[in-house]
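pls read this stuff:
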Amino acid sequence: MHLKKSALCVLAGLGITAQAQAEMFWNDFSISYLNGDNYEVGDPEREVITFEHASGHSWGDTFLFVDRLKSDNGDTETYFEFSPRLSIGNLSGSDLSFGPVKDVFLATTWESGENFDNILYGIGFSFDAPGFNYLDANIYHASNENGEDDEQLTLTWGLPFNIAGGEFLYDGFLDWSTAKTGGSSEMNFTSQLKWNVAKALGHDARFYVGLEYAYWNNKFGITDIDERNPSLLVKWHF
């Protein structure tokens, strides 16, 4: 437990110190609202408010999201992930690009819920993919507080496109983790298809409406608990 707390402090300090001492290239804030009724663990009907912040720096990038979940039965939960990545290419002054890979990162994530803190660390890649705002992959070892450690692959992407003058965005993530004692391998493929209503109304802003769909096999490692959950989505970037 002492090592776990030390790792949390290092990870939090890594993001805060680096952001304070490096040049910021871009950053993005958003808040979204989801409403779905096909959750497979706990109450099936749930509302979720999510705050997200992403940023790019001379040393790498960060991503943070905080979910506040409220179930129809009154249960509430807060969950967050904080993911700073250090650009090995930028920090070493070397060009590490090869093929479609633009850069290589030291990738970390802190996952925290009501009764756990997990630390993930490994290697990350950023890809040059035509048409995409971003396409990234991270390969982690997960140090889990309340269970056996495992390995995880995470893919994230953002793909903008236009139809009849309308501005759309398809983005999301895929998490795949290995099996462990008492838990099955799991795969969570969650994506959002969104239309920028503000642009359609002539405003220079990003206010999306759309749909999120979660396709999750063996949710939380529980064998045969497979979630297929569409949720209505409203999302504002500011």
About this structure: The longest strand covers residues 150-163.
